[in-house]
Amino acid sequence: MAPADGAGEQPHKAHRQHKSGAKARKKSGKGGGGDDAGGERKNPKAFAFQSAAKAKRLQSRSAEIEQRRLHVPVMDRSIGEPPPFVVVVQGPPQVGKSLLIKCLVKHYTKQNLSEVRGPITVVSGKSRRVQFVECPNDINGMIDAAKIADLALLLIDGSYGFEMDTFEFLNIMQVHGFPKVMGVLTHLDKFKDVKKLRKTKQRLKHRFWSEIKEGAKLFYLSGLIHGKYTKRELHNLARFISVIKPIPLSWRMAHPYLLVDRFEDVTPPESVRLNKKCDRKITLYGYLRGCNMKKRTKVHITGAGDFSLSGVTSLVDPCPLPSAAKKRGLRDKEKLFYAPMSGLGDLLYDKDAVYININDHLVQFSKTDENDASKKQGKGRDVGISLVKTLQNTRYSLDEKLDQSFINFFGRKPAAQSEDISASQNDQGDANISEQADGNDINNADTLESNEHSYSECSSDSEHENDVTTQLSDHEVDLREKVEFCNGRLRRKAVSANFKDEVDEEDSDEDDSNIENSGDDQLSEGSVSLDDNEEALDSDDETENTSKWKESLLARTLSRRSASLMQLVYGQSSMKLDSTASETNDSSAEESSDDEFFVPKGQKKQAKNEASIFDDMDAEDYSKFFKAELRDWSDEDLIKSIRDRFVTGNWSKAALRGVEIDENKEDDEEVYGDFEDLETGEVHKSETYKNAAGNGGAHKQNDLVEERTLKKLALKAKFDAEYP
Ligand SMILES: Nc1nc2c(ncn2[C@@H]2O[C@H](COP(=O)(O)OP(=O)(O)OP(=O)(O)O)[C@@H](O)[C@H]2O)c(=O)[nH]1
């Protein structure tokens, strides 16, 4: 019993009050909290700003946020999940484009990519997918890539410097709407001297800024480890790619377009057997961007021509966002990548089928079995097994077959095959021509600019350089192409007068103090630290910071203007034809009307302007002027001369002027209307001449000459009297 009594008397453990945490805070709030909180709130120093500069910064920041809010919001037309963000990796040959894509894919998906072909879609975040595309090294591929890029990664060989490919691509992007651009320096491990490396980085960064814009992002990939870029630098780059916001480009938002990541020939094999050049039916797969596409819309396939759509079907997303993937079955884990052309991704959704790709190691085939089987049968492998084996080996048999047979969007197609395509699409011939013409234009411009080059062996000794610099018509282009033989191949270096290639020793000492602080930051961050160099850039001359490569745009545009349809078809410059025509007109006009000679300067100029409005038009395309110089539209006379051509002007006056010109022509024809028909050999004489000849030949002619001389003299006298 005693123990029972003892248990009854045992004192209860006292309740321990909470001294910290939510409960304690709650209690103190309930109790005398009012005073404490009030006391805290009443402290005036706690909420006042201490520094005027900080206050100013805060104020300007809030004003900026307010301003941003006031901007017209960009209409988001997308329905459901946004399509993947297209990242185009561009750079000169052998700069490391494929390697960078492989490394980024490995970073995002932990998958090894054996080859980079076609677009590669990877999931880069909870609500974001990225599609990597390698930009081909030819100009047509660049044009195609520039049309679809949301972000362009410009790879630059740090050990060599800027090459022309980069500027050509920038130039093309400028035409198609400039997407986001980031620079990536590779091959930096070739520098043995740390100081030189730092100087080169600095120099390339400044040039990159001045060519694109101040503060443009430039990443450094400092070298390879086991044949791959370092994880830390890739991580930084991937993070930037993941967070970057695409610029809404108005043209793209208003037009539907598709980056094809897979295609299939669905032409019945029988019709192909009967006619190898029959019209093919092709199914193209890809994410639709821009806006919705309608059936029967005319579409342009780059490099192939214009076609009409026979139908559009929406399919299951082959690379869904992680959130969407959970809703569907069939997959045990999330598939974070889709690259059918590169042989990555194991589930394919077709219009009418779903293909599941099973890896070889998951299939129960063992070598011992095979050997046994062959022994048992006494002759080769069983037909059934070998059939299954071959089926297993060919992952995308149809695609691969197609790939070998034709359309290759990015310029790898063999010449013979391309001929086939154009032959089979005779009805779309016009479109093909226009596409080629377009390409020609740019090629023309390119060859024009590449006239301006020098050829040299890749060596540090500049004396060996054979520097041939020709000037593009009137426009001096700052950027110069220097072709040199380097690392076993020809490279086109982009030389700028404003940026020296070699690092000046004197400069390097000077600048070192600036870089010392920022250099490490850049190395560790893998990105440009803006603040460090802002001041240095501010002090730069403004003209230096303007994009130099843009200057060549005008020259290119002008050079492109001269190419006309006539020139392309007949191989003859329409410009020349027209100019010679106008020259002859001029000379005849000079001869015929001496009146012009006695017209005051200003008036004469005006009259000339009038005439030249018609003269310097392209014969075929009136939107083109072939004269290289643009008119001086500040000239009052010139403005006056076209005033009547607008809605507000006097149209009848303009028409009268036209009639006057025609009448003058007739007059001229009367006097100089003789011509010889070269085909028939018939000589036509003008009426005046005929009359003169009929009425007594030379005598009459003399009279005419005399008459004209008298007329001239009279006019001269009149002129002198009016304008002494
Ligand atoms: N040392 C060094 N080698 C590199 C670096 N980046 C790429 N490479 C090597 O350069 C070679 C070319 O790389 P790729 O990725 O094939 O270059 P690419 O630009 O795709 O080449 P193309 O497709 O032919 O234009 C490979 O052997 C890479 O290992 C780098 O930063 N340092």
Automatic annotation (TrEMBL):
Compositional bias per record (Basic and acidic residues), positions renumbered to this chain: 450-475
Polar residues bias: start-end ranges: 419-448
GO MF entries: ATP binding; GTP binding; GTPase activity; U3 snoRNA binding
PROSITE patterns: G_BMS1
Catalytic reaction(s) noted: GTP + H2O = GDP + phosphate + H(+)
Residue ranges, compositional bias (Basic residues): 13-29
One GO cellular component term noted in the UniProt record for this chain: small-subunit processome
Keyword Phosphoprotein on entry: yes
Ranges of biased composition (kind: Acidic residues): 502-523, 531-544, 588-597
Domain Bms1-type G: 82-247
A Pfam cross-reference name: AARP2CN
Alphabetical keyword list: ATP-binding, GTP-binding, Hydrolase, Nucleotide-binding, Nucleus, Phosphoprotein, Ribosome biogenesis
Region annotation Disordered: where it falls in the sequence: 1-46, 418-475, 499-548, 576-612
Listed GO biological process terms: endonucleolytic cleavage of tricistronic rRNA transcript (SSU-rRNA, 5.8S rRNA, LSU-rRNA); maturation of SSU-rRNA from tricistronic rRNA transcript (SSU-rRNA, 5.8S rRNA, LSU-rRNA)
Biased composition (Low complexity): 578-587
Subcellular localization(s) per the UniProt record: Nucleus, Nucleolus
SMART domains with a match to the protein in the record: AARP2CN
Main location class: nucleus
Family: Belongs to the TRAFAC class translation factor GTPase superfamily. Bms1-like GTPase family. BMS1 subfamily.
Name the UniProt record assigns to this protein: Bms1-type G domain-containing protein
